[in-house]
Amino acid sequence: MIPGIRTSLSCWGRFHPAECRLIEPESRMKLAALFCDHAASGVIARGMGRSYGDSSVSGEGTVIGQTYLNRFLSFDPQHGIIHCEAGVTLEDIIKVSLPHGWFLPTTPGTKYVSVGGAIAADVHGKNHHVDGSFGNWVKGVTLILADGSIMECSPSKNPDVFWATVGGMGLTGFIRDARIQLRRVESSYYSVRYHRCRNLEAVLSMLASTEQQYRYSVGWIDCLSRGSGLGRSVLMLANNTGARALTSSLRSDPFRVRASARLPSVPFDFPDWVLNPFSVNLFNQAYYFKQRDREEIVPYDSFFYPLDGISSWNRIYGKRGFIQYQALFPDKTAQTGLRKILETVSSHGAASFLAVIKRCGEANLAPLSYIHRGYTLALDIPNLGAQLMPLIKSLDEILLEHQGRLYLAKDSMMDAKTFAAMYPRREEFLNIKKQIDPECFFISDQARRVGLCF
Amino acid sequence: MKTMNLPCVILGSLSGIAREIADQLVRKGTPLVLVARSAEELEIQASDLKIRYGITVETIAADASELDRMSSLPEECARKLKGGNIGCVILCWGVMYPQGEAEKNTQLLKQTFDINLTSSALVLQAFANKMSHAGGGTIVGISSVAGDRGRGSNYLYGASKAGLSALLDGMRHRYHGTGVRVITVKPGMVNTPMTKGIVNPSSPLCASPIKVAADIVRAIETRSVQIYTPEYWRLIMAVIRNIPEQLFLKSRL
What are the structural domains of chain B? Predict the structure, then answer.
């Protein structure tokens, strides 16, 4: 038996800790040995543990940590193709590629996620309406299947398995390494237009009408404003800054990689009462009125990763933890659906400190990929104890009524019935999984909960 | 300071601490020869360093258990460097098995001494000979606080490291004044693949390999002869060494 340590693991929301056996192989040989180890069962890979719920934990099972499998294998600065092991983080890629004028094709709001996790969750960013999700930019992955065999897959080779792996939450196999197509950039800066919108209608129409003009768009939304101001937001619309638009001091080093400006980390769990509707409302008022409509050139770090500066920011929710609720609505139901979600959240007094609205473009081929055309709203909801479940249930009902769906990387509470209704291609995914993993070797607590197993 | 511009050999370059040392030295522009067991892993390590820092490193696949090969390793390194001088050698390989397993399994017991002590003596003596002939160099050995006093919970590993510490102390004495410098490194608990399942990584005393590697690189740059890393282990071990035997026997360390 491979030595592992028994430990309690949870993800970023710290909501579902589970006792797991954690193994962190430091070589390909040790990794391969895991698949011949009869003691290993209920296996799931874990990168940076930045999904929110229980995607990378497996209670009474085995978690394979990618801590040491984080090495670059090749980089072609001519064509911007990077080949690396799955434990490499997006931050590592930026450090390597940006000085050569290449940036991530798309990125979530933190750079502390692994490449394996980015593929498994098919993450998206502020440019989904133009560039699609992370999986669209994967040229190929090397997958270790349940029987220990190695399968190369890409959009042209074993495409079924490839697309099941994109967004497949690590349930098709262990992603050992991947090749990613990066994006050419002219600088490491972004020209951001800040625009205040007074209510939800204004936000949606602004996001839709500017989607050709701006590659990146996102709105910070005040969840506590009600009535005619419901959904009031500050939009950030941006494009990569051309070298000529930079001031002369920035132009001397246009591809500067910023040493992560580390603000002090959150040193302890905040008491539960710190974030309450009153304090959040105070913050939101101050934030909204502080913003003016303006344009600014900002470094990539402050545009894409505003929260990365504060390590362990999840501790502001205290020991109780929190959940993320990310709802996606198609165009035709977005307005009513989003309105109902916002009303329900604020009527429960569930102050969401961070709420973000984004425009989404076309879906890709992956059966479990989350995003399709529409709008997505992401909310933080503190663990309210007994009130949490009824609130989530009523939000789920609103989603189902409006053909909406939830994001697996953020989900903590969805049940199997709800999942099946939201993801009509679930069967198709399971059929592919049955062929390559008939004994359900790869499984997570989330997969057990939402029924991505057999 | 000068040492850092000359090539450095890392023995056991895939170990948790060595990976970080390699990273930190490459960032300082030190040319490296990496020695480790697996050719495949070495190739990955070399490509990773090349891509991250733009620097090409040399590699030699060699297993510490090939005892006959140890004395020729300095020559192999010199050939990789086209005859250039070796500025520094850092011995990072080592094995640690849970005490209970090593007590019952003679293979594991023998390996503990073969790798941690015999191969280390063979290879470091060969480097010392070569360096004193060349007129200088730095020898760094990663020993352990476990070698400072035999304890019931880890004395087989501890004894092999006590031997290594004595070897390094004696070497320092022997080559004093010849330009060959010898540094003894005694890490405490470190979160690495070797200690997985034995050392509790969430213990406040457990250090990261990044911290330990930084201490080692600083020791090479300064005039240190013996370091504990993190430094507080110097105090902890001073206390443990001085507990009277009768009292010590009643403890569970």
Answer: 2-250 (3.40.50.720)
